[in-house]
């Protein structure tokens, strides 16, 4: 049993924060334990909470298109995880998703940091404000951070928009999506990989 599996088994039983009281499933993260590329979001949404898998709702579909049709990886090639492993919802009533609060991030983030330590990706992509701020220890917003390389320890980090932001701001062919794609072109260049398609990937 590898240490990623041990960590997952620990997370599946975790009650370290209040989110355990409303979760259906713990969403540990999934993908290649030796992935070169790791995507990090903020927390599971409704579909993810029900299935136990990260990024499988509408935003996940967009991310998967980006990874598979445009970048030319399969989801199994990369690793996808969130800061919190249980779904944060408004008032814990399962009505609406929200970003994890400080207490939840403090309780859950050791799982993510251990995942990074074990996987040792060559590049990390942070998706949206919460994961970018957490990984890069900054208060800067994603609009000013995206598209610029930073580092977590010695690992290059490319912040970009969360796919749900793309969906809220025009979706396919929107300016936000083009900006996200230009960020991913930088990631591919860093990994020495050619894109599968250019600009549009619908
Ligand atoms: S969100 Fe993280 S810390 Fe909180 S109960 Fe779930 S696994 Fe544990």
Structure in words:
With 202 residues, the chain is an alpha/beta fold. The chain has a single domain, classed as Uracil-DNA glycosylase-like domain (Uracil-DNA Glycosylase, subunit E, 3-Layer(aba) Sandwich). It is built from eight helices and six strands, in the order H-E-E-H-H-E-H-E-H-H-E-E-H-H. A six-stranded mixed β-sheet has the order 1-3-2-4-6-5, sandwiched between helices. A hairpin with a 2-residue loop joins strand 5 and strand 6. The termini are far apart. It binds iron/sulfur cluster (SF4).
Protein topology:
Elements: H1 3-12, E1 30-31, E2 37-41, H2 46-51, H3 58-70, E3 79-82, H4 102-119, E4 123-127, H5 129-136, H6 142-145, E5 150-152, E6 155-160, H7 163-168, H8 175-191
This protein binds iron/sulfur cluster.
Which strand-content bin applies to the residues?
A: 5-15%
Per CATH, the architecture is 3-Layer(aba) Sandwich
Q: Would you tell me the structural class of the helices and strands? A: alpha/beta
Overall tally of domains? 1
CATH class: Alpha Beta
Physical arrangement of strands within the biggest beta sheet: 1-3-2-4-6-5
Major beta sheet summary: 6 strands, mixed
Question: What is the number of helical segments per DSSP (H or I, 4+ residues)?
Answer: 8
Low-confidence stretches: none
Order of helices and strands: HEEHHEHEHHEEHH
Average pLDDT rating: 93
Distance between the terminal alpha carbons, to the nearest Å?
39 Å
What ligand species are in this complex?
A: iron/sulfur cluster
Number of strands: 6
CATH topology: Uracil-DNA Glycosylase, subunit E
């Amino acid at each position: 049993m590898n240490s990623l599996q041990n960590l997952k088994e620990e997370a599946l039983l975790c009650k370290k924060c209040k989110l355990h009281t409303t979760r259906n499933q713990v969403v540990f993260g999934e993908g290649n334990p030796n992935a070169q590329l790791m995507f990090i979001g903020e927390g599971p949404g409704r579909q993810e909470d029900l299935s136990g898998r990260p990024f499988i709702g509408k935003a996940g579909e967009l991310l998967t298109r980006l990874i598979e049709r445009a970048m030319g990886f399969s989801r199994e090639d990369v690793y996808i995880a969130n800061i919190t492993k249980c779904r944060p919802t408004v008032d814990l009533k399962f009505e609406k998703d929200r970003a994890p609060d400080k207490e939840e991030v403090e309780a859950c983030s050791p799982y993510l940091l251990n995942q990074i330590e074990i996987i040792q990706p060559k590049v990390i992509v942070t998706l949206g404000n919460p994961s970018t701020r957490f990984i890069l220890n900054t208060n800067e917003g994603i609009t000013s951070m995206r598209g610029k390389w930073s580092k977590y320890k010695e690992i290059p980090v490319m912040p970009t928009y969360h796919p749900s932001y793309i969906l809220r701001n025009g979706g396919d062919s929107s300016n936000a999506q083009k900006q996200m794609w230009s960020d991913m072109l930088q990631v591919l260049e860093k990994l020495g990989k050619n894109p599968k398609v250019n600009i549009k990937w619908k």
